[in-house]
Amino acid sequence: MAGRHRLLLENAQQLVLVCGRGEEYLLREGCASLAVLRGASLVVGLDGRIKAVGQADAIRSQFSGATFERVIDCSGKCVLPGLVDAHTHPVWAGDRVHEFAMKLAGASYMEIHQAGGGIHFTVEHTQKAPEEELFNTFQHRLERMLRAGSTLVECKSGYGLNLETELKMLRVIERAKKSMDIGISSTYCGAHAVPRGKTAAEATDDIINNHLPKLKELKLSGEMHVNNIDVFCEKGVFDLVSTRRILQAGKDIGLQINFHGDELHPMKSAELGAELGARAISHLEEVSDEGITAMARAKCAAVLLPTTAYMLRLKQPQARKMLEEGVIVALGSDFNPNAYCYSMPMVMHLACVNMKMSMNEALAAATINAAYALGKSDTHGSIEAGKQGDLVIINSSRWEHLIYQFGGHDALIDYVIVKGKVIYQNERCGTISSY
């Protein structure tokens, strides 16, 4: 196939497709045998889409007359899909390292929250922070996520709680969408906590009557396109009635439902999400058996956050039961001032060790299933012709090292590629050959 193309990856020891037949997601049975090619190559076109995947000699023959902007010899290396982080809170000001010491001394999440810490501490600092400062720190965090292999990240607002600051955060996210290579799915999370001086009912009315109409207006004018709506459905925060009202109002203006549920107390959030047609529900440490069944039936993804359960010493989410019941299990880092982790390889490791997921299940959860949770598994999450050329190349002959080497991704990842462009290159890799 003659013509010019953006990228050729040649001779990969393992090319981990994850899916090979256009699957939207993988359930437990599908994870048992991930699609992996050996001695394989792939081509990404000038449009950033994967043009061909196959055995190295077949690709070389098919593209014998072609030229490439870049060629990378992947002999002895593994190529995987770019990782997808399905849950983060990366726009904020106000460091909370002091709260880590409180947690280590035995203070619970809600005790810190009720003492004026937690979300409220970050809200106070984020409200005061200039937009440029928020953008600069957000950009730095996204760059660190990229270097750890994430090429698509869900990014929430939620440290504003008033309309002005929520819009400031969403403008920062929108700006990054347009100026950075990393993929972003943006989430309005104005119902992250009840603002000081308001009741939950008053905050709910404010969101429905003021915040959401403004988002709709900005969408129609083309100034801002938010993808998801989130609510922290929790005892002492937003109850089931308020959560239902906010999520339905968001759905009515075209937002995907993707919310926090059943984290600290059993709230029947999973049942509510399944009923409302939620795309995904996060946390679920306290989910009921009925909620698991409802999510499986509704094809509502469970975004599990092993870093949060680990750092807050919570009960681990029931990943095995969810997988066995047919739930679509995805993973997220929950990056925020309360759970400071940029690295999806570390998240996958924790999912395997603490939640008893297999490495295959963890990789599917951090690629195709996380993409599904964001409504993007048609373009992201696997290495298939027609999908976006988002890729990670690791310096190992077995892909499992990305999970096995806990904290080792800095040395292991050679290249991170978005739309066929090398966005990050490990300094030991030298220059990239082209012809």
Automatic annotation (TrEMBL):
GO molecular function, a single term: imidazolonepropionase activity
An annotated GO BP: L-histidine catabolic process to glutamate and formamide
EC assignment: 3.5.2.7
Gene3D superfamilies for the chain: Metal-dependent hydrolases (3.20.20.140), Urease, subunit C, domain 1 (2.30.40.10)
Catalytic activity: 4-imidazolone-5-propanoate + H2O = N-formimidoyl-L-glutamate
Enzyme class: hydrolase
Signal sequence, renumbered to the chain: none
Record keywords: Histidine metabolism, Hydrolase, Iron, Metal-binding, Zinc
Pathway involvement of the protein, from the record: Amino-acid degradation; L-histidine degradation into L-glutamate; N-formimidoyl-L-glutamate from L-histidine: step 3/3
Gene Ontology CC: cytoplasm
Iron among keywords: yes
UniProt xrefs under PANTHER family: IMIDAZOLONEPROPIONASE (PTHR42752), IMIDAZOLONEPROPIONASE-RELATED (PTHR42752:SF1)
Similarity annotation: Belongs to the metallo-dependent hydrolases superfamily. HutI family.
Name listed for the protein in its UniProt record: Probable imidazolonepropionase
Biological classification of the source: Eukaryota, Metazoa, Chordata, Craniata, Vertebrata
